[in-house]
Amino acid sequence: MITLKRKNNIIFTGIVIYILSVLTFFSPVFINNTLLKAVSFGIMFFGFALAIVEIFPKKHTKSAYSKSIKWIIVLGIISVIMGYIQHQQSILVNIRMMLDVVPFAFFFILKKYNYQLDTTERLIKVISKIYCVLFVIALIAAPLILFDKSGGKVQEINIGRGVARVKLAGSCFLHFHFFLAINNWLTKKRKVDMFWVVITFVFIVLEVSRQHIVVAFILGFLMISQNVNWFYKILVISFTLLLVKFAVNNITVVQNLIELTTDQVNETGTENIRILAFEEYMFNHNTNVLQDIFGNGIPNENSSWGKQYNRFREVTGLIPSDVGFAKIFFYFGTLGLLVFLLLGFKVLSKKVPPQIQYAKFYVTFVYLTNIASHGIFTEAITLTIALYILDFYNKKYV
Prior knowledge:
Layout (H helix, E strand, L loop, with lengths): L3 H19 L10 H23 L10 H22 L3 H7 L8 H7 L4 H25 L29 H18 L2 H16 L3 H16 L4 H21 L1 H14 L7 H12 L4 H6 L9 H13 L7 H26 L7 H13 L5 H4 L1 H13 L1 H4 L1
């Protein structure tokens, strides 16, 4: 007979394996990439099948976000149809490309097992710590590539930003852990939580993604300042200004990122690659009203449409991943854009209790970074966990 503790451990292990499959098991280069993808796809769709029984029954009437997530799943199904009728990409390939939305079904797996807050937070910490360990290993090994989430597209590590830019999947759990650590420090006043605030932010800086650094810093500052009195607010602001001044004057990574940003800001509007990408995928790329409403579907690099799409990106340098909301429009049309924007508005407009405010701040982080990146896609699994945490408390507080 299986004890309750053993059953919970089995469920926790299964969920960790599912999450690792979403991250393609961190894509180590010494394991065949095709095999990794095949195993990951199989586990993800098995998880999706488990979630199906939770998705369709009308038993989530008190859930704040289940309807929005159901709509995201519907967007994935529509993308299968649109990819076929608009670009003749095969149905089977389109189903495989649904992987961008499949992680959202994880919401219903968590609801199925009624995951508690402490277990969910443990999940975030475990994956984040694994990511940090692997990141350090990858950084030490540079310029040798040990992990490559691009699947072999990156031939060498970029060091133009002052430190090796490691291509390791799983940074979404690091970002989520940062806000969780701040929240725990503010509510529990433990030194160990302050330690993890510092550690997670250091790793965010080492990722050398400017918008992640800036948005995490600003939201982290706001999160701390709104929870302390005026005296401590002045101390926090003073310390922050000194820290920024020190970083700008003494840390090479920060200086290189500022220089890169300055060069891009000095570009004219007609030369800025992100502005051009936004205009292309929001206003110029679609060829008919059906695409405007329902999108194009999701291109596969090996299909004829995918190859044509990749050639266009290579020639023009216009990449939808640089402009996340335009990417949503390109994939899922106006319908998709409305679904994601309404979901974000619903989250940001609701009040939450202090013990889970980190989840709301993290969703804010994802949506802000999605402006000049595609955080909604790369952080889909953790965005889903954040929505589950908020939804878990919805019945009591909303």
